[in-house]
Amino acid sequence: MSSADTPMDIASSGAGRLYRGQTAIVFTQRRRVGLVLSAVLILATVVGLFGRGLELGIDFEGGQSWDVPAATVSISDIQDVLDDLGVPTAGSRLQERSSDGDSTIKVQLVDTGDVDPVDIRAALATTAGVAVDEVGSDLVSASWGSDITGKAVRALIIFLALVAVFISIRFEWRMAVAALVAMSHDVVVSVGVYAILGLTVTPATVIAFLTILGYSLYDTIVVFDRIRENETRFAAHRVPYTDIVNVSMNQVMMRSINTSISSLMPILSLLIVGAGVLGATALSEFALALLVGVVLGTYSSVFVAAPLLGVIKERSGDWVERTWETASGDALRSMVLGGQPVGRRRRDASPSEPDDAGHTDEESSRRPADASSLMGHAPRPRRRRR
Amino acid sequence: MARLWATLGSFVIVVGVLVGINVATDNSPVLGLDLQGGVSVILQATDPASADDLLVIRDLIRDELESLGIAEPDVRLEGENIVVDLPGVKDQTQALRAVDVAGIVELRPVLQCVPGAVGPDGLDGLSDGQAALATNDGTQTCIVGPSAGSGEVFARGSAAPQLTPDTGSWYVTVDLRDDGRPVWNSIAAACYAAGSDCPSRQLAIVLDDVVQSAPVVNQPSFTTGVEITGSFTEDEVRDLARVLNRGAFPVGVEAQRVETVSASAGDDSLRAALWAGGIGVIAVLTFLIAYYRMIAAVVVAGLVIWGGLVYSLAAFVSQATNYALSLAGVTGIIVAIGVTVDSYVVLFERLKDEVRSGRTPRNAAPRSFAATWRTIVAADLVSVMAAAILFWLSVGSVKGFALYLGLTTLCDLVVCWFFTRPASILMASRRAHASGRILGLGGSQ
Questions:
Q1: For residue range B254-274, what is the model confidence (pLDDT) as tens digits?
Q2: Are B160 and B172 spatial neighbours (Cβ–Cβ below 8 Å)?
Q3: Sequence-separated (6 or more) residues with CB below 8 Å from residue A40
Q4: How far is the CA of B405 from the CAs of B273, B304, B363, B400, in angstroms?
Q5: Residues of A in contact with B259 (CB under 8 A)
Q6: N or C, which terminus of chain A has less Cβ within 10 Å?
Q7: Which residues contact B306 (CB under 8 A, 6 or more apart)?
Q8: Strand runs (DSSP E) across B192-267, as ranges?
């Protein structure tokens, strides 16, 4: 590998280059891979949503409840009885309630599966050692009414509109479009995971989806901030937008990997330690939603938001004219490292008419390299060490 | 340099004092229904009510509780009962007072008002349906005719206190419902005519057998809304508006009994979440130290300070506002660890880039921080916006989530500016660290 174009040694292994931030992956060439993968995920979500639908918990759907006198039984006894009967307890709620010395255990179930509610009542009475009549039975309404959903949706719409305005002002509207598309992609696919795996949706799940939404936007903005910075940095070089996207992706790759590892570790620990070892199932489903969301949030910033932004930008403003061949290999690496486009670049459009400065095609193909002299502030040369 | 040391030192002291105060006063975050349990009040309708009526009451009770600052109540129907579970409420009387929000508002024509309090049997000769009721300030007793309509004529939640800026006088406006307008207008017309039913031309607004207000009807019919004017204080106007909004209850409800509720997720969930969080944090720190070497000390100290700050604020906020920390909140904080660590990762990667392209760490640190700060502020602002809007506009557990999301994100920004900035710049400027080795860059030089 020639090091003539680059100011420093390049690691020979892929991992070494990754560690030193010397990668030169042409992300935009792999655009289609991301596109196909995302399309498959969304298709699976649609199939899951319309095929199985979402399993809603007792807070959304209501269900049935039984009041068991709790003089001699505990919550775990009741849990065992329900498990023995084969009653699905996902999304159910067992609570001990007491007033004036009397305590009862309230059992609330979304649905009883194939088990006859009468049998459940009888089994509960037997366990508690009381007559069947003493086990109160009632229907329970949803506690998460439609007005809560309505208010949350309204808040979300206003938030998204403001985020679009914020990104448009801080960056530009095209980035707002790309960020919101990536975010929708993440939330939709996370919901799809719930539908496909048949997990019960509880209010905590809704919170998990909101967390995913926030994380996805956060991650995308960090990536877009670097793209924005590179737009300014390469402003004088007239490089195509795909180069800017590729350079930025390579520069933030290590950060994206490290951040997602750091975010995933606590969630994995929640999933494995919390749910697996200590046996708190409420945690496991919540952690699963977050796990999927964080992975998707990182994935979509790099493989959905950035390529989409590239596609939109290539067709707008000055960028349309910049049809240089996309940089790859050492040329791209040099841009990733030092910030200057180097090497001979060929214009894709063939006509050799003189451009506005009167240069011929042959000359103009060298312009990116020449333009480095336009940079006001070249990086300081590295101290030589022998 | 001295200023950086001063910032660093004073910030660490401030956080230390905050944590110290919380530990000394034994102030810990109030935990939600799922983690700690709470108090439950069972309400029953005083008259037969349809299922739809009960659902309306469920939503109204929740709104009332939230507007009174009782956060995240779990309100649902069980059979004919309305069950209200309250997190963070400590005793039964407090719970009963909190849910005493439902009652029907009656509109009754006033026959006559006399000064002074009069006992229930103090006035003879009341005909059927008439009653002698005290006014809410206790100075007058009014003899009112039978109920002519209920507060359901008013649009839900439309009553609001208003102020005339010129005169400084307070009044209340309330909108009429489309289907309530004919009822209201027929009562108003009867009173405006000052017939035998309503000789005083006053219409009493009655809640729980107390006359809340008895305005004189000044026009026979109303189109969209009603203004109630008088010599009110601001507090009186707010109370009246609350009464009118409460009038939307289709039937009255009363508390039957109070129960204490055990945690539904239970101790083991909280313990599991805390264990998982602890192990997760240790894993993250191990990873970061292995990757970034010495400068990861900044992350370790930064996370400890961030944790102390979040804990103190969570304890303070949950005690002061009734927003209890639920299981979702605890796990949300665990996820926030990832976002917080990200600000360090962005900074360190930037620092490594700068050092690789030939700068000394001393020179690169302030520049890297400036660039990182721009990125972090942009990204965190979105989270803060999400938190603010969700907190402001939504209800229930979504609101509680928003509160803790905003809290952790603001803590991230504060720690980033007051701790990470001075700590990383000071660390990078040590002469011993000039080689870039503190960043784990030894091999690439």
A1: 777 777 777 766 666 777 777
A2: yes
A3: none
A4: 17, 18, 35, 9
A5: 97-99
A6: C
A7: B340, B411, B412, B415
A8: 203-207, 210-213, 225-232, 253-261
Instruction: List, as ranges, residues 27-56 from A with C-beta within 8 Å of B.
Output: none
Global ipTM: 0.72
For helices A306-314 and A31-51, what crossing angle results, to 10°? 120
Residue A375: pLDDT over 50: no
HEC assignment per residue over A30-69: HHHHHHHHHHHHHHHHHHHHHHCCCEECHHHHCEEEEEEE
A15 domain-assigned: no
Measured between CA atoms, the residue of chain B closest to residue A12 is B444
User: Which residue of B62, B291, B396 is in closest CB contact with A258?
Assistant: B291
Q: Are residues B97 and B115 in the same domain?
A: no
Contacts of A210 (CB under 8 A, 6+ apart): B386, B390, B398, B401
- A45 falls within a domain: yes
Domain holding A49, by residue range, is 25-55+145-319
Specify the 3-state DSSP secondary structure of B3. Answer: helix
Distance (Å, whole) CA A317 – CA B154? 56
Q: Do A218 and B385 touch (CB under 8 A)?
A: no
CATH number reported for the structural domain that contains residue A87 in this entry = 3.30.70.260
Based on the domain organization, do A100 and A243 belong to the same domain?
Answer: no
CATH number at B114 reads 3.30.1360.200
Chain A (143-202) residues lying within 8 Å, Cβ to Cβ, of chain B? 143-145, 147-148, 151-152, 154-156, 158-159, 162-163, 166, 170
Is the predicted pLDDT of residue A324 greater than 80, yes or no?
no
Contact B212, B159 (CB under 8 A): no
Of A81-85, A216-220, B37-41, the range with the highest mean pLDDT is A216-220
Same domain, A173 and A240: yes
> What whole-number distance in Å separates Cα of residue A193 and Cα of residue A195?
5
Q: Which of A62-76, B7-21, B79-93, B338-352 has the lowest mean pLDDT?
A: B79-93
Number of structural domains chain A divides into: 2
Which among B202, B219, B246 is the end of a domain?
Answer: B246
Inter-chain touch A259–B338, beta carbons under 8 Å: yes
Q: Which of the residue ranges A357-361, B77-81, B152-156 has the most confident prediction, judged by mean pLDDT?
A: B77-81
Q: Which of B213, B246, B279 is the last residue of a domain?
A: B246
- Write the single-letter amino acid at B5: W
pLDDT band at B111 (very low <50, low <70, confident <90, very high): confident
Distance from C-alpha of B306 to C-alpha of B410, rounded to nearest angstrom? 10
**What gap in Å lies between CA A67 and CA B80, rounded to an integer?**
15
Find the mean pLDDT for residues A232-253.
80
Report the gap between the CA of A252 and the closest CA in chain B (Å). Answer: 8
Does A102 reach chain B within 8 Å, measured CB to CB? no
Give the domain extent around B203: 105-246
Instruction: Check residue A349 and give its pLDDT.
Output: 43
What is the arithmetic mean of pLDDT over B415-430? 85
d(CA B133, CA B349): 75
* Same domain assignment for residues A234 and A285: yes
Cβ–Cβ of B335/A215 closer than 8 Å?
A: yes
Q: How far is CA A361 from CA A258, A327, A351, B10, in A?
A: 44, 18, 8, 62
β-strands B105-115, B149-150 pairing = antiparallel
Other Cβ atoms less than 10 A from the Cβ of A37: the count is: 13
Q: CB of B58 within 8 A of CB of A145?
A: yes
Q: Which of residues 270-309 of B touch A (CB under 8 A)?
A: 271-273, 275-277, 279-281, 283-284, 287-288, 291
pLDDT band at A358 (very low <50, low <70, confident <90, very high): very low
Cα-based angle A58, A148, A197 (whole degrees, multiple of 5): 45
For residue B33, is it within any domain?
no
3-class DSSP state of A24: coil
Q: Provide the chain B residues 126-185 that lie in CB contact (below 8 A) with chain A.
A: none
